[in-house]
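Budget justification, computational time. The allocation requested in the original proposal was used primarily to generate structure tokens for proteins on the priority list. As evidence of use, we reproduce two of the resulting records. The first is shown immediately below.
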Amino acid sequence: MLKVHEIDVFYGDVQVIRGVSIEVSEGEIVSLVGGNGAGKSTVLKTIAGFLRPRTGEVEFLQTRIDQLPTHQIVDMGMVLIPEGRKIFPKMTVLENLELGAYLPRFRGSSHQNLQRVFEMFPILHDRKNQDAGTLSGGEQQMLAIGRCLMSQPKLLLLDEPSLGLAPLLVEEIFRVLGNIRESETTVLLVEQNVHHSLALCDHAFLLENGSIALQGTGQELLQSTYMKEAYLGIS
């Protein structure tokens, strides 16, 4: 579904991504893990079209997209949930969700998709007329995910969904991600919570200093001595 081939990405004259290659197959959850400043969010922004690679290519559904504007990439079926959620706080929960179905081809199925979101997140149904800015952090993350599901994405790019959440809410978010995979939506996940991310995913890539340092199945990385010592606090 997605092929990222040898991309180099710069901020001005500073290179932050060096020769990164990633593949995501349909129906998978693929995790991109690493420490702060490793370049994980930059990779997602490049895939989604917010940044342009200086070299390398990005293909989605066998079409090269690294020179396309973001709105065309969204129309192809790729959606990014950015770090920090980026909901509209002064609009209601329902209004935020309805914005997720703004593309004309999704409006006919918006009611069906809305019911699906409410089944996945009953709290959003209970608070649909409440201003989104009054929700808790975990509820806002559920709203951000629900808004993206309104557009029936083929590929969901998810940036740090557990950031700043209490442990119980982190468990809930990862449970939801498992449900999303069961609904045949493919997921590329950036997450600092390495253990949860690797336990959930089919395949994983470790990004260090802008380069891929390790890759394999989630279980292979969980069992890696290097991962245990450097990221999981196990010696």
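The second record produced under the same allocation is shown here.
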Amino acid sequence: MERKIILPDEIFGRKTAGAMEKVLKGNSQTQVSEQTAPQVNAPDLKDYIWVPSIKLYVAKERDLNGLSWNQATDKIYNQGINVAGQRAEMPTPFEFMSYLKYLLSGNIKGLAESERQNILNDILKIGKYIGNWLNAKFVEQNKGFNNFGIETLTLDSSGKPAKKVEPLEPCLLQDGWADINSGNSQGLLTKSYGSSYEQGKNAYFWYPRNTAVARFGADSVGAFLFCGSVADNSDPALGVRLVVRPKGASSKKMVGDKTWN
């Protein structure tokens, strides 16, 4: 039996009434910023950018602002957020960093240059604090680098939440400025870069701590990839850039699947 998921009253601060019908009917204003059409069964999503390297739609703006990581993951994976008939998720560090690098790569077809710059500034620019929760929790595991595993949340084929754990891959093991392009396959940074902030080139990396969760943010000092955050922390400027995985596209295979409660 197909599981019905209720569409929230608002997404991205806008009313959702009639939105589903417009998308499914192929509203002419609904489009995706992309150089080529996705080779998967996916609708065009307004306010999302198609990132071809990861075959994933990533939101232009943050949602669920002011929620802690625990509250945001509960909203996404237990209660469910429906976007154009598909479940939204929280991006992993690898997915978020792939999105960021795609934005940094240059002009994107269908996306105005001014809008691209605005998104980058929202993620990277020095100023008041802004942040994005990421789908990663670090747990003790003998198999992983520094005896850690990286735990992520996902949805199984029936739409039920589950968690996956895989050994942590080698990354920097001290806090400091790191090359934003040096991410491993889990999105964690591996090479030091500079002694001060250079927008679009480096970020301050807090290496993984036990039971900590990940977020990417910027403040008055610079941008940072923080892998030492507490899951109960919250801030009005800390939210989630939702991602939508088209039907036919799967997330990176991880080991140790377990039901998540």
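A brief technical remark on that second record: The mean pLDDT is 84.
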